Input
Amino acid sequence: MRTIQLSRLDLQPGQAVLDLGCGQGRHLHALYDRPGLRVYGLDRDPDVLQKAASGCRTYFPAASEGARCWLVLSGDSLRLPFAPGSLDVVICSEVLEHIRDYRAALLEIRRVLRPGGRLALSVPRHGPERVCWLLSRGYRNEPGGHLRIFRSRFLRDEVAALGFIPRGGHHAHALHTPYWWLKCLRWGKRDSWLPVRLYHRMLVWDILSSPRCTRWLEALLNPLLGKSVVFYLDKEMEAS
Output
């Protein structure tokens, strides 16, 4: 399930790409068909990092001269293990809402991106997320869960004020919004309640099969019900 549209990253052979908060590697693994990249995944959870690394071993060929290479790292978004200006692209998808000092994380992203480098950023959208918070106290108090709800324009302008140029955006995952509302209605039994189980089965079918009917439906619903809001921004060039 990809939130970021990789076609909007203008990826080129030889570039270094970081998936910050990579989780099990849904965006990391999607880079397998982009030749010549240096791909990094970073997360704090050792269990999901093991799955991300396992997927990389499956999707990426053995590193050799001229081939793409990958590395999965355990690390902190507030202290990224990269030199200033060493990365061409940073993907930060559904991460900032979990970080208490998210502004410090944005400053770290700015530090490691080269001038002109691209940031692909996504967070839960304000409207659907607010409904989740209203429906379930358990959802909003889940350990390791969401600490805040961002207003899209506020976040975009805040990132722009740090020296990034907005290059467009979109909404994503409208079909997932009702699923999370159903889970929040019965949070204590969210995985065993029949409506949730049936909806989850449909989502798995949609992700694995990607039928045209649901792709068209989600495209129509994304502006209204998209669960995530996505921004693409470029780091400003240094003044000469």
In short: The first helix runs from residue 46 to 59. The beta strands are 16-20, 38-43, 69-74, 87-93, 113-124, 164-172, 228-235. Residues 6-235 form a domain with the Rossmann fold fold (CATH 3.40.50.150).
